[in-house]
Amino acid sequence: MRTVWVMGDQLNRSIGALAEADPSDTRVLLVESKSMLTGRRYHRQRLHLVLSAMRRFAGDLEDAGFDVDYRQSRNFAAGLDAHRTSRKPSEVVATEPNSRTVRALLARLGVTLVRSDQFLCHPHEFREWADDARGLKLENFYRWQRRRLGLLMDDNQPAGGRWNFDHDNREPPPADGGDWSNPVSSELTADDRALVDELPATAIGNGPIGIWATSRRGALARLRHFVDRVLPGFGPHEDAMLEGNWHLAHSLLSPYLNLGLLLPGEVCEAVEAAYRNRDVPINSAEGMIRQVAGWREYVWGIYWHWPELERANALDHRRKLPPFFTGDARTEMRCLQTALDGLDERAYVHHIQRLMVLSNFANLYGIRPAAVKTWMRERYIDGADWVMEPNVMGMALWADGGRMATKPYVSGGAYIRKMSDYCKGCRFEPAKRTGDTACPFSSLYWDFLARHRDQLADNHRLARQYSTLGKLKDLDQTRARAHSVVRQVRAGKL
What we know:
Rossmann fold; alpha/beta; two-stranded antiparallel ribbon; 3 domains; Serine Threonine Protein Phosphatase 5, Tetratricopeptide repeat; 5-stranded parallel sheet; single chain; DNA Cyclobutane Dipyrimidine Photolyase, subunit A, domain 3
């Protein structure tokens, strides 16, 4: 009897090696690796989600008639060795892992790898597109994806007459705070509570409170909830931030997609069906499909296409994580502390908090990119190496020198004031860049442009900003304020 080894982020009967597996001739192996669980200081809710989902998936496979060997071992190699010794499989096969490290490990261990169809674009297909493309622009990839997959297309034309409705999806928070329903919650079972006690002592953040589904059934319910009740308002305010509403109109589906509990194709099909039924406006439907079939698949392809991103640091940033990032202090910057509290409480903040608050500050302050990547990988409920490497090193921190994003995504306090309510009640003033009440983002922003002038001044997308920088009469005072901010942040006193 052969064995199919399933990784903890491939929890779906419909993909890869499991798709055609028959219980009469196939056994399934799942391994909880202690070294994987303790190798980093993961958030408790992240660990709970993965382990609970693995165990529930094992139970589903047993109910379907499979002989499941579920092992807790010191590492993957030890788990496989114990399985081979006790069960003596004729062959061990696995769907291509979603990590370069694990894929290389399984190859060394003599495991036969089966092509993965967990994503809409296999790395080989991405490479073929990249070889023919004039530059690896997201927009070109996205249109290629839409055409070949037939997503949101009317014959050969994009639905609604345009490929991109992003311009319609940049509205600030609604004055009334919006009317989006809370995500479906679930009661923690006795097994869930017992699992919390098994989590390693190195884990960080608050324990699970029932926000995250840990089964395919639960993930499908979350998808239905999003499409029926949240998606109509997703588009316009997807970049907005509110202190009193942590999820707004975001889908909260990324953890389930990343573990295989949902597949990208079924998410896109559900979104398109809602649009075709006239339940969802085109800008919301297109915005969601852009995220799933466009950006997510683009990031997946870039992870395999540019493995060198792992070590990128084009801006030569070398500072350590500040104390409030590591929980050793709190900050008076309301936007930052709200995001940090959200990570502790839920292992989640949405993409604009990630990009324009946390990553923006990390870049302006000058934190070493690899440290930011690891920090986010450990804390996010949807963290994975393939997610973090391109998103953080390329998009968020511009550590790749502009291969993914033509300019760094940095801003002063004005952007945060426009797109959020964080500045209300904060002692710092976004319009000021000098003085003790100047917003640290604003002071650091102009210092960032000044210190990277040689590298960025010729960037056409920053021409207006550098023109303004050249006219600032208080640049010396602004930079002095920025240096004071750095000293205070380092000391945990800001």
